[in-house]
Input
Amino acid sequence: MNTILKKLTETLEDRKKDDPSKSYTASLYRDGLEAILKKVNEEAFETIIAARQGDNKELVHEVADLWFHTLVLMAHKNLSAEDILNELSRREGTSGIEEKESRPRK
Output
């Protein structure tokens, strides 16, 4: 796994034990799933706005925020960046249409 993703994954796990009054990430964990989902949604919207505005520097900033909050969500659910990388690896060489059709229907 990429070094920064591994380090970030470890940091996110450590933040679960931190004082929420001193750690933004710990406060998200304390506030629970709905607070984390709200942040993911907010960052996804801000990413869309930045992409539409055409400012690549701002887009990179917003995507980094989105990735960060998505990793917080994953850690909250006891998953990691490695789980996502493994899934992407599993899909490598498979068309998006084929991959989607292989999923169980809901």
